[in-house]
Specification:
about 190 residues; alpha/beta; five-stranded parallel beta sheet; globular; binds ligand FNR; NAD(P)H-dep_reductase; oxidoreductase activity; FMN_Rdtase-like_dom; ACP phosphodiesterase
Length: about 190
């Protein structure tokens, strides 16, 4: 079987290191996983005033999540939390009340930073949000990627075999997590 993974990059930056990381993850993922980016950059700032009439960007976000079997978050850490743009996208997807797109949707969290902590604090914050949104998230392995430019090519080539093995294993475990979750929680229609 194949599984559709929608990936969300938490950074809007043109030269995002997390976008580069996402390319590496796609290259190293097992063949059962098919990837589609779910864009977040054109979403207006959410307010519940929109709940009665979502704009096209909000509808497209929810449709893209619905069409995916699982969601992969690849995010930087901004000021020890997730970027506002990512939180905004999650708020959009979680509403209107009673129509939370993350319910029972398997997820995983990963991120890269030039610093030694490797987005650990942002990921912990994101995990709280995903718990509240009732997304069965992969607990382990965790992946705090210290981004070293020499190790990651622009197209996601990974030149360090230890890093390559680590990321390949992360994606295998993510596939197994998706399979397990979908076995007990079939997609809602
Ligand atoms: C950062 N950066 C950062 N790094 C980190 O490890 N912990 C942090 O709390 C922060 N805070 C932070 C705030 C803001 C507003 C910016 C712009 C940056 C540095 C950050 O990891 C670095 O810019 C990465 O390149 C961001 O990832 P993307 O956007 O390139 O994917």
């Amino acid at each position: 079987a194949t599984y559709k993974v929608g990936y969300i990059i938490g950074s809007l930056a043109g030269r995002s290191i997390n976008r580069t990381l996402s390319k590496a993850l796609i290259r190293l993922a097992p063949p059962e996983l098919e990837f589609t980016e779910i864009p977040i950059k054109d979403l207006p700032l959410y307010s519940y005033d929109y709940d009665s009439d979502y704009p096209a960007e909000g509808k497209a976000l929810k449709a893209a999540i619905a069409a995916a079997d699982a969601i992969l978050f690849v995010t930087p850490e901004y000021n020890r939390s997730i970027p506002g743009a990512l939180k905004n996208a999650i708020d959009w997807a979680s509403r209107p009340w009673g129509d939370n797109s993350f319910t029972h949707k398997p997820s995983a969290v990963i991120g890269a930073s030039p610093g030694a902590i490797g987005t650990a604090v942002a990921q912990q914050s994101l995990r709280s949000v995903l718990s509240y949104c009732n997304s069965p998230q992969m607990n382990a392995p965790e992946a705090y990627v210290r981004f070293v430019p020499e190790v990651f090519g622009d197209e996601g080539e990974v030149t360090d075999s230890g890093t390559e093995d680590f990321l390949r294993n992360f994606m295998r475990e993510y596939r197994d997590h998706i399979v397990r979750v979908l076995t007990v929680l079939p997609p809602r229609t």
